[in-house]
Write a structure and sequence with these properties.
alpha+beta; four-stranded antiparallel beta sheet; 7 helices; 4 strands
Amino acid sequence: MSSWQSYGPRRRVANGLAVATPGDVVDADARALADAAASNASSGVLARGRAYARDGQTVSATVADGQATVAVQGSGSKPYKVRLSRPSSQVGRVRATCDCPFGCAPRLWCKHAVVAAFVVAAMIDTDPSLRRSWNPARPAEVAVAPQPLKAVALQWTPEQVMAAALDVLALPSSVMERPPG
């Protein structure tokens, strides 16, 4: 007899929070959160968590004071409550709890915690205010208004772009000595 029990199909969520490519983030804190999901779940749980994240099974998510509270709809009648936290004494660590029957233990997260990690990672990857809410110790970022690429392309010649790049990036002398073409 197996200790695994099926609880039936998940209940679909209308207008749930969805992540097109779970774990595809660039911010350092977001990356650490996505990595925590990957390292604390089995491959099967990780795959199901990714599917839940893509399919929008997250009902709600809030981030404040180094914690995230997320409601993820599974097969039960009510969404499961997941809490992710960053223990201040353990830099880079993420702790997860979930009220589902599987629950969460260190290095053994449920799929709901994986979903929560991917959704929160995507949120903090795109919203600077949420980054500071997730990691209050993070230094404030300098806001730089992005310039449309089309405008830059219309204003600069390829030679000007290369000259500006060389001002910023020091290339090895062997590259600089090659004749053009």
